[in-house]
Amino acid sequence: MTDKEKFKEWVQTELDWPFKKKGISANSFRNYQSGLNRISDHLGNSIYAISSITELCSLVKLYSPQGKNADIGQSYNGAAIAGLKLWLNFQCAILLNHFTAQPQISAYVQDELSRYRLCQLFQMLHQKGFDWFCIRGKKSGPIRCGRKSVGNNTALAVLIRLETPETTGIKVLISSTYHEGISKSARELTDELLVELNEADYVASFLSRFPLKHKTLPKWPDEYVNRTWLLSWNPKHFSDGGEGSDSYQLDLNPGDKHRWTSSSKQPQLGDRIFLIRLGVEPKGIIASGEIIRTSFDDEDWRDSSKKRNYIEFEVEEHRPDLARGLLRQSELIRFFPQQQWSPQSSGIEINPSITEELEKLWVSNSSNFLIEEPVKMKFESLPTNKILYGPPGTGKTYNTINQALTIVEADFLQKGLSRTQLKAKFDEFVSSGQIVFTTFHQSFSYEDFVEGLRAESESGQLNYKIESGVFKQICERASEGVTETDDPFDQALTIFTDALASHDGLMTLKTITGKEFDVEYGGGNTLLVYPKSNQSLQNGYSASLALVRQLYRTGSKKGIYNPSYVDGVLRYLKSNCGLQDYKSQSINLPVKQFVLIIDEINRGNISNIFGELITLIEPSKRAGGAEALSVKLPYSKESFSVPSNLHIIGTMNTADKSLAQVDIALRRRFEFVEMMPNHELLEGIVIDGIDVAKLLKTINQRIELLYDREHTIGHSFFLPLKDDPTLERLARIFELEILPLLEEYFFEDWERVGQALGDHLKSDISLKFIEEKFTDASVLALMGNDWSQDGIRLYQRNNAALLNPEAYKGIYESQQG
Where does 621-733 have alpha helices with state H? Predict the structure, then answer.
């Protein structure tokens, strides 16, 4: 049976099919055939020979009533264009006839555009020779298609999320490992899909949410994992109309369906939720469930005259107290510091990198009542590269201490120590070289970070030597796996320098051939050498301690300046200072974790600073990784790789640079952890009737409306008020920190500064922080009747308001509506 005959049978069948609602009579079909013949004659080619979805869609556009050849399409009372659409739908039917899930697809793909694009995608895969299939697991999808593998190449996956029938539409997400071994045909297919389907934004979104690692290549058909969301509940809001009871409990039973506030509209059907209780003890996750209804607007629970965004979830488990397995908030913070566990709003996404460990902890707690020693998170699950980002004053730099201590000594934060004790411990790790802190700035360069040439004068002559930067130094230390205090070389070096000091700073050593030379410590990393055979030498030769260490590690004198003297120093360290063979010490000592903290990482030129090393920081590219890489450094010509026990934590101020402006190479290799202002940390601070938490919350809400959320104000500006809750301290914070910051945000647009502080809503002008500099009367007196301001209004600070409690109360009490 020819395609033309199959087409006739398909058109005339009475059975409903996703792309054809009912059968068509023989007379009508003859009209369609006549119209198609007319199109074929015009094309000079039989329409029945064309099966390309892309080409047929173009023809439909061409022969439609708005197309270039509309007069041909309208032949036989429009039967030509109707027949062309039927032939297009028949080709879609042939494609989708491969699947048993046709009704499922038709239920979701209701508009023609989405239908054709979906079939276009399937046809493209089929024509490229890839295995393809379609699966829809839960009610929400997604439909998945792609190929499992071709030879030894890595898998390429195409994931299609179909919107619900109410919203319709199609989103195409393309996932590729993009390792060096990926086949050329797979790469070309990915590029072609991007061009043809024009869905690059969705691709970027998918890759950022689900980055594929070498150890987690796609395993079809169950590779896709739904997202997980954190809903919050504060029982203190019960009196405001929120859910709960006087005993701070919710009525949640397995299988119950509940509406809940969600700040995000992204949660999809089938996504996982955890509900966390805040505000009252015991704080922590009390319930889990699954989303059964996506974002919808309904009456605001606080104010019936307003609308609020909600989702609906079905309860899986409810654990209202410790005896029934509640997950403590303190445990969550300890195990997953990269996640926000005191959210300002309900409905934030839980970091995909921790969802698996979180599920394990949730399951383990179900049978571990009043848990004292919860399951510890495996170290391997900690992210290697992380950036804490957010507006000024949200505790990014402050939080790097906890982040670093969690990595280098995971149990330390569980000891309940004070902040002073934690900082002291942090300083110990910094002193030992296990934690290194640096700050990027506009002048920071590759030479500062990796290695570069440094000029120094020797015997009146300018010489250049290669000096390791902060990153190379900690990589060298981490590759040893031991800190400075535990490193046998550094221990031997301490004995050596002590011996030098006891000999008035000068000792006589021998080369391997027995020639004597005096050695003097020149400070820093430099030794000065005076051969006995050259009595006229005044300033001595240089023998760098870094070169002594290099010879100790490598055993090679290649590239070492003054190798005989460097070797003589190393031989002394081994014979007189207890330095053992390099290999034996590396076997006996345990490998430690090292942390490099880069403050203000976005203020440096990432491409210039990291150079070729940006690739090496990826987990799979690190030394010992599945796809380990090394590079030859430009100055020293050494082979260099990044050890897997080095962790990089950066901080980024979004007021300086938006996340969208960050170098894409950096974004792809780092996990980004958002840190936003948390006004709840200020709850309980009341100064002369001023509710500081409400004050900050209101200012930030206005800034979001006037500017954006990346330029809000952090809570840490106000934390000093906990120890000094006085109006004078609050006025000082506003005068020296808050007002200058707002002026910078709004480029000294004083009117908008005043709006952020609610001045435009205050009826009493004496309570305004920003006031007009000139009154109408003063302008008249200064300039006369003939002068016009032309809309120019000058403003100034009202310093008297800084010491008036009512001015601060007016920030949040002056809200309208």
Answer: 664-669, 692-706, 727-733
Ramachandran quadrant class, 141 (left: phi over 0; alpha: psi -120 to 50; beta: rest):
left
Of residues 191, 124, 206, the one with CA closest to residue 161: 206
Are 598 and 650 in contact, with CB atoms under 8 Å apart?
A: yes
| Cα–Cα–Cα angle for 705, 707, 713, rounded to 5 degrees | 90
User: What are 247's strand-pairing partners?
Assistant: none
The rounded distance, in Å, linking the Cα atoms of 466 and 1 is 78
DSSP helix/strand/coil, 478: helix
- State which H helix or E strand residue 138 sits in: strand 135-138
Cβ-count burial of 813 within 10 angstroms (0-12 exposed, 13-18 middle, 19+ buried)? middle
Q: Using the 8-state DSSP alphabet, how is residue 425 labeled?
A: H
Strands 686-687 and 257-261, sheet pairing: unpaired
User: d(Cα 725, Cα 708) in Å, to the nearest integer?
Assistant: 30
Dump pLDDT digits (tens) for 18-43: 556 567 788 888 888 899 999 999 98
163 with 202: CB under 8 angstroms?
Answer: no
Instruction: For residue 7, give both structure tokens.
Output: 């087409």
From start to end of 568-643, where are the E strands? 594-599, 631-632, 639-640
Global pTM value: 0.51
The residue to which tokens 């979180």 are assigned? 358
Biggest CA–CA distance in the chain, Å, is 117
pLDDT in tens, 777-810: 777 778 877 776 665 667 888 999 999 999 999 9
Q: Among residues of the chain, what percentage have pLDDT more than 90?
A: 18
Dihedral sign computed on CA atoms, order 598, 602, 605, 606: positive
Distances, alpha carbon 588 to alpha carbons 50, 433, 574, 581, 584, in Å: 71, 20, 17, 11, 7
Strand order, beta sheet including 170-176: 135-138, 141-146, 156-162, 170-176
CB-neighbour burial class of residue 777 (10 A; exposed 0-12, middle 13-18, buried 19+): exposed
C-alpha dihedral (57, 58, 62, 65), degrees to nearest 10:
30
Q: Is 535 exposed, middle or buried (0-12, 13-18, 19+ CB in 10 A)?
A: exposed
Q: Give the pair of three-digit tokens for residue 273.
A: 């939720």
Q: Using CA atoms, how far apart are residues 645 and 379, in angstroms rounded to an integer?
A: 11
How far apart, in whole angstroms, are the C-alpha atoms of residue 115 and residue 109?
A: 6
What residues pair up with 496 in beta bridges, in sequence order?
Answer: none
Counted residue by residue, the chain has a size of 817
DSSP structural state of residue 801? G
